[in-house]
Fold this protein.
Amino acid sequence: MTLIDHLPVLVVILPLLTAPLCVLLDRPVAAWGAALGAAWLTFVGAALLVGQVADGGAISYQLGGWAPPWGIEYRVDTLGAYVLLIVSAMAALVLLSARESVEREIFRVNGARFYAAFLLAFAGLMGIVATGDAFNVFVFLEISSLSTYALISMGRDRRALTAAFQYLVMGTIGATFILIGIGFLYMMTGTLNMLDLAERLPEVSNTRTVRAGFAFLTVGIGLKLAMFPLHLWMPNAYTYAPSVVTAFLAATATKVAVYVLLRFILGIFGIEFGLGRMPLEYLLIPLGLMGILSASMVAIYQVEIKRLLAYSSVAQIGYIVLGVGLANTHGITAAVLHLFNHALMKGALFIALGAVAYRIGATTLDAFSGLGRRMPLTMGAIVIGGLSLIGVPGTVGFVSKWYLVLAALERGLWPIALLVLVGSVMAVVYVWKVVERAYFSQASSGSGEASEAPLMMLIPLWTLVLANIYFGLHTDLSAGLARQAATVLSGGQGERHAFAYLDSPGSAAGAAGGAGLCQAAQSA
Amino acid sequence: MLLGFLVLIAIAAIRLRDLFAVVMLFGVYSLLTAALFMDLDAVDVAFTEAAVGAGVSTVLMLSGLRLTRRWEEAPGHRPPLPLMVVAVTGAALIYAMLDAPPLGDPTAPVHQHVTPYYIEQTPLEVGVPNIVTAVLASYRGYDTFGETVVIFTAGLAVLLLLGVGGGHSFRPGENAIGDQTVLKPVVKTLIPPILLYGLYVQFHGDFGAGGGFQAGVIFASGFVLYDLAFGEGNARAVVPPAWLHRLAALGVLIYGGVGVYALFAGKAFLDYSALSANPVAGQHAGILLVEIGVGITVFSVVLSIFYAFSGRRRKS
């Protein structure tokens, strides 16, 4: 085996093993260098993986050399490779902007350990995506969760400690539920390998144990996902965490949770069981809509911009949940697309907020007074990121909302399409609040002369902003993802059972049909 | 019977306002759980539960209690939501059990699918008598690597929050529980066997119950005991707190290093057969090495968490 064959595991163990190295280095700058190097190498690895998967289909890697289901298998398919790419890209970009911000916000003694914890959170997320083993998901979830709690508690505001504790309690309940769910599946099938589970589950899918396992998994992942009404931990956690941490988490953590949800519900249980036999559809659609509307409403009244964007994230997750709940091709496509697009926009917006916090020292609405003139590049990025959040044509936000509206109309649910548009209008209101203050109000006298953010922050920031526009105009990627959504539906099992369900008369998704998938792909 | 006791203790722990009593009840709870695991023939788990749950975590909670008050304030209101969540969860668990295969049923899926393979193939492929160790350290060795990283992460988190134990508030020679004339000789006699037993569990894990996790905790508990009875400073002189987190990192690197070595030898990550020309001998060597890594990490993390708590004084 050459090094290229080890890519699936390399993208996980590279950041994982650099973390203890950072602890040994014990100097913030050296640790930053090591972390940055590891993150960029991982990013290159993930990019190579995307290419490999595109050429040869899903890759299986047998850890310890043991064949599944006896050993643990890593399994990277197209969707997985893209999620790995986006997580590593965000880590690489956020770390690039991290040095100045961390010097300002984190106590010096903790500098090196902070980067170690950051790398662990990053590696944990990568491991969750890459693995093909249900229990291994839990192990890496623990790595990323524990390090995330510690990272959030590093915020300078004392309330960061309470926020981290709140997240710890909620997150631990979520993780325990996921573990109970996995336990029930193991009890009924005797296997932990995901493919093997998908094969053996249909036989026992009528038992109460499997149904309860499904429920535990959904609620557990819902907690991690900050799905309305399980989102209460998130606004505080995002508000009080250090800027770097918020930027990374907002762009990746909930996205990985969405990926886990798709993988378990559609990949392991199969769409027929997950959305057909279980009443998940009737749960996800209302919850998604309530998340969009209530969180957007709360966001409008916030004066702390970090908190405003956190509530906006709850709303954006609502769109994703809604897409999954609609359960037709366009819906799933919208969910998958929004997973990437939301990472791009929130990554950009939170890095911009980090820059504002770095120069002004606060991110309240007042801090933004007159910033349009003093930090033109940062504010420009916030404007474009905000437009993308609203879903203006030419940005990525438009593409995912377009698919979501299509999905709702396809099922004849025009009120839902209307509510999605109402959500966009509400986004206009809360984005405009910031823009108005930045461009149409005088700088408050006490805030001194703030200048433009340092170059190391502007580079990652504008990379993400340009990505927002580029992928908004070139939708080839989204076409590829639409096709991938179809493979997720079939659980990587070949086309059999998922398509049988899609084609069956009477099922709502039947309208899309197998052929519709390809058309959806082309029409993008 | 055991389960009934567990429920009673749990209810008592929720009702009591005396936190000291609650900590003691938690200790009893863990010990009973360990007995339950014994009953289920999970000796390795029982071992860990007894050492971590009943031993070390009781001490940690007590040192935490020292920093705050002994009596919990009565809550002003009784929120109905948590009770509802607990009731629904409990109902769901009972619902799930209705279709579950009965305990000990040899035809249950867990005994039919992967387990027979482990039982038949372990002597041939891994060559260690303890099948549990073979599954944990080799077949599912990557999970165990992940768990070691989880422990390292926990240590790192405590370090980030509390700093290295023994800062400005650290007073050498003073011990937490006062001068105990009877305790000191007892502890003095107990410590050598404890440390020796820790080493035995570490290196005998492939034959009997045990391994790095258990050994690390037992070894650390020896140090904790000494520190409690003889005062701070002496134990810290043997293993300085500032070195513990480096040791923890080293343990992870040992485990990961074995994996990376296999990688460069052209095998999969953590494929121990790369360690020797004879694959079975390689497996054996690999298991010993990674267990040492686990032991070092667990030992240093447990001890450093204890130092971090015991090094703090209440501001008064």
The CA atoms of residues 483 and 518 of chain A lie 7 Å apart. Residues 490-524 of chain A have pLDDT under 50 and may be disordered. Chain A touches chain B through 62 residues (CB under 8 Å). The longest helix of chain A spans residues 329-360.
